[in-house]
Amino acid sequence: MKNIKNKSLISDLSLFLVAIIWGGGFIAVKDSVTLIPPFYQMAVRFSLSTILMAIIFFKYIKNIKKSDLKMGFIIGFFLFLGFAFQTVGIVYTTASKSAFLTATYVVLVPFFNWFIFKDKPDKYSIIGAILCLIGIALLTLQSSTSINMGDLLTLLCGIGFAGQIITTGIYTKKSDPIILTIIQFATAAILSFIAAFLLETPPNILNKALVPSILYLVFFSTMLCFIIQNIAQKYTSSTHAAIILSLESVFGSLLSIIIFKDNFTITMFLGCIFIFMSILTTETKLSFIKKSSTNKCSLSED
């Protein structure tokens, strides 16, 4: 039992690290899409990630089975869907609004699990998800709350990421996480190249200014983060993972404050409080309140 709890704690801390890195990814994506069309950016990102993963974990490729290909393709399809809507959407909206709208998967995941697998979320997961979404809204929606095409596209990416989190949670318990990571990257790369070929004009030359953003996206936001996510979700639920990963929007906003010297307002502080409450509710099931009430009852009886 103790070993299981330790693995669960390590998985939570690992997903927390992923959220921090993905928070920085919003800045990197916003920078890169001003220099290269969105689908070509995704094609470069996932192609390089696939090649590097295949080189580093070459011995795993020999063990790929037909079932692995199927599972990895399904995860990769949802991954492509999420990033396609997010990357195209961020062209037409701000990084902070993109961060908030992307994080709608924190609300979608428990309800998708309920609808598809009849896995009804407990009241604490639902309350935690709602509190987290309110907090993210307060933290990120500062100057503009109007909805444009970019906002709508980014909102749709929440569906893709919800599907990716749910299928990852299912399939990493049936297959090797490293193998699934390689296959999902390859799937996203192929679909990105197809979309780029059909919908975009190829860039004449890659700008050198792209290099820092692309390297961050490839090595940190893609390779490192998805390896960690795929391994960590073997030891936690999809709803639990979604709550922690949604903190990427918080770190995206905080990094914007540090890098771009944005103001930290009272509204943003309230957003942080709501998000802390959501994590506390989801993680503890408010057991400390129940314990306190039980102790008071015991004392009164004495």
From TrEMBL:
InterPro entries from the UniProt entry = Diverse_Substrate_Transporter, EamA_dom, EmrE-like
Q: Which residues cross the membrane?
A: 12-30, 42-61, 73-92, 98-117, 124-141, 153-171, 178-199, 205-228, 240-260, 266-282
Q: Where in the cell is it found?
A: Cell membrane
Report the Pfam families cross-referenced here.
EamA (PF00892)
Q: According to Swiss-Prot or TrEMBL, what is its membrane topology? A: Multi-pass membrane protein
Q: Superkingdom of the source? A: Bacteria
Its chief place of residence is membrane
Among Gene3D superfamilies, the record links this protein to: 1.10.3730.20
Q: Which GO terms describe its cellular component?
A: plasma membrane
Ranges where the EamA domain occurs? 11-140, 149-281
Alphabetic keyword roster: Cell membrane, Membrane, Transmembrane, Transmembrane helix
Hey, what's the signal peptide range on this chain?
A: none
Family of the protein in this entry: Belongs to the EamA transporter family.
Q: What is this protein called?
A: DMT family transporter
Query: Which organism's genome codes for this protein?
Result: Clostridium senegalense
